[in-house]
């Protein structure tokens, strides 16, 4: 029966980053990416109801009614009409979404939000699809959302087809595969970013000289990263993670005009992680930064306290410290 569904999805952190589209409409990426879907602490819960008496679609986010005519919201909610058409549903939808994210923490919630929307809408429409098929609908809302449809260590395959039917997320390993892995988050700045990822990546493709070189080696790096995670080889995993983060930020800086998401505190943390690893004589901590200055430091359970102690040095600038299982 078509009708109502409530579903949840959590945020994900990419260790091989998505930065650039080959198709802006379908949100098809230039390269494949790899991420860990985070644990339960950062999640969005969404209920979708198809109701006969409803005149217009309604979307409530954290208790506030959103304007579905607003350009960015309309673009990101396109999946609703696509799913409705596929399921041959005429009813309008009432969507109620709650972000269970720490307040003012500077976490991007769009991946969890748009993944939860895809999962709940498909379920309410009584379409029983696999996780990879579901990821196609989440992707239409936001590229990184495709990875949040699945748990554990996930690859979003770039695909080759023009219609995007092979640009899907696939689980490479379940969350239980590497139980010792931890993600210590340092919030350097909880403010809104100056340039959106969507606009920034478009500008990078248009202007960066380094970007084509990145595209030449990135698929090989993906294979190396998959091997490192499957083998739970923290040395390899850590090195690839840090180099890949810097590589993405290098093409951002090479964009014209330059895009700079890292700030001085982010850079100091990079040096501090290398110093910690150098004292240990091996990699025990690995940073990665997305489109912002906040740091995710991957480590293993036994070294969490050392990483937290290192971040304490920056507590005047690093507002929140959290530890996640992935
Ligand atoms: C990632 N980011 O792989 C990379 C790393 C930001 C830096 O995916 O235009 O919000 O909605 O597809 O998914 C952010 O991009 O962009 C992103 P759209 P999205 O996590």
Stated plainly, the CATH topology of the largest domain is called Ribosomal Protein S5, domain 2
Total number of helices: 10
Bound molecules: ligand 2P0
Strand order of the largest sheet: 1-6-9-7-8
Question: Mean pLDDT across all residues, rounded?
Answer: 93
What is the quaternary state of this protein?
Answer: single chain
Structural class: alpha+beta
What is the CA–CA distance across the termini?
36 Å
Helix content: 25-40%
- % residues in beta strands: 15-25%
Main sheet, how many strands, which sense, barrel? 5 strands, mixed
The helix/strand series, from N terminus to C terminus, equals EEEEEEEEHHEHHHEEEHHHHEEHE
> Roughly how many Å is the radius of gyration?
20 Å
Instruction: Flag low-confidence runs.
Output: none
Shape descriptor reads globular
Please tell me about this protein's structure.
With 326 residues, this protein is of the alpha+beta class. It has 2 domains: 4-177, 2-Layer Sandwich (Ribosomal Protein S5, domain 2), CATH 3.30.230; 181-325, Alpha-Beta Plaits. The protein has 10 helices and 15 strands. It has helices at residues 71-76, 78-87, 110-124, 131-141, 145-148, 197-207, 211-230, 234-253, 264-280, 304-312, and strands spanning 4-10, 12-16, 21-23, 28-29, 33-37, 43-51, 58-61, 64-65, 92-100, 153-156, 169-173, 181-186, 285-289, 295-300, 321-324. A 5-stranded mixed β-sheet has the order 1-6-9-7-8, covered by helices on one side. The protein has a 4-stranded antiparallel β-sheet with strand order 2-5-10-11. A hairpin with a 2-residue loop joins strand 7 and strand 8 (64-65). Helix 3 packs across helix 4 (131-141). The longest helix has 20 residues, at 211-230. It is globular and about 65 Å long. It starts with a strand and ends with a strand. 44% of the residues are buried. Bound molecules: ligand 2P0.
């Amino acid at each position: 029966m078509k009708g109502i569904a409530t579903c949840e999805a959590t945020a994900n952190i990419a260790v091989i980053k998505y930065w650039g589209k080959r198709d802006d409409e379908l949100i098809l990426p230039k390269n494949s990416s790899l991420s860990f879907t985070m644990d339960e602490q950062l999640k969005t819960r969404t209920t979708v109801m198809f109701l006969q008496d409803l005149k217009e679609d309604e979307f409530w986010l954290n208790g506030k009614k959103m304007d579905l005519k607003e350009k960015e919201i309309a673009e990101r909610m396109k999946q609703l009409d696509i799913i409705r058409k596929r399921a041959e549903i005429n009813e309008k939808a009432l969507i109620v979404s709650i972000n269970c994210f720490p307040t003012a923490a500077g976490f991007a919630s769009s991946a969890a939000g748009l993944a939860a929307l895809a999962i709940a809408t498909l379920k309410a429409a009584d379409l029983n699809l696999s996780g990879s098929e579901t990821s196609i609908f989440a992707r239409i809302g936001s590229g990184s959302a495709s990875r949040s449809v699945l748990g554990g260590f996930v690859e979003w395959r770039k695909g080759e087809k023009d219609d995007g039917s092979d640009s899907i997320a696939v689980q490479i390993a379940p969350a239980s595969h590497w139980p010792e892995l931890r993600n210590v988050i340092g919030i350097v700045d909880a403010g809104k970013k100056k340039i959106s990822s969507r606009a920034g990546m478009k500008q990078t493709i248009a202007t960066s000289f380094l970007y084509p070189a990145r595209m030449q080696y990135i698929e090989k790096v993906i294979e190396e990263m998959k091997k490192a995670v499957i083998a739970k080889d923290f040395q390899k995993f850590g090195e690839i993670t840090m180099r890949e983060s810097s590589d993405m930020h290098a093409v951002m800086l090479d964009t014209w005009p330059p895009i700079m998401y890292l700030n001085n505190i982010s850079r100091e943390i990079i040096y501090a992680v290398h110093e910690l690893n150098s004292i240990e004589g091996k990699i025990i901590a690995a940073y990665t930064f997305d489109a912002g200055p906040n740091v995710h430091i991957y480590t293993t359970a036994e070294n969490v306290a050392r990483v937290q102690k290192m971040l304490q040095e920056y507590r005047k600038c690093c507002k929140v410290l959290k530890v996640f299982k992935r």
